[in-house]
Amino acid sequence: MSQTPRRATPKRAASAAPAQPVAAAPDAPGSTGTASWSAPEHGPGAPLTAKQDRERATLAHFGVALGFAAPLAVWLLYRDRGPFTAQEAKEALNFAVPPTLLMVLFFFLSLLPVMGPVFAVLAALTWIAMAVYGLMGGSQVNRGRPYRYPFNLRILR
Fold first, then answer.
1. Rounded to the nearest 10 degrees, how much is the dihedral formed by the CA atoms of 149, 151, 156, 157?
2. Radius of gyration (Cα) for the chain, nearest Å?
3. Rounded Cα distance, 87 and 93, in Å
4. pTM above the 0.85 mark?
5. Could you give the CA distance from residue 139 to residue 16 in angstroms, rounded to a whole number?
6. pLDDT tens digits, residue range 115-129?
7. How do the domains of the chain map onto residue ranges?
8. According to the UniProt record, where is the region Disordered (predicted)?
């Protein structure tokens, strides 16, 4: 068995990317010191107009049908930008937290083999009540009138 010598294959030249300039630190020798290394500062947004304030408050109440996530988001985003939105989003959030937790409990109890269907119906009825009261609240707030839920735990004051 004779071995044939292998031919050397030519190596391809790697295409080198053009070198990018390296930025110097602001306090480095030869630096102009104009580069900014800090993140931009963010403060609260501009205050809401009366119409925007009413619209955001309406969204908080309509969002009750989705649980407490929507009123919480509206409250966190707009509490410092509009007094009506802050008040109504807090009201909607206070209303939405207990029934949402109750629905989660009913959901897990609905997995039980014997009483499961009863808890599934209770979860559905809880959601329907939340949606109806949220729509009622949203329609009142959209007219510019504050809405108070008939039963509400004051978690946030």
1. 80
2. 30
3. 10
4. no
5. 64
6. 999 999 999 999 999
7. 50-142
8. 1-51
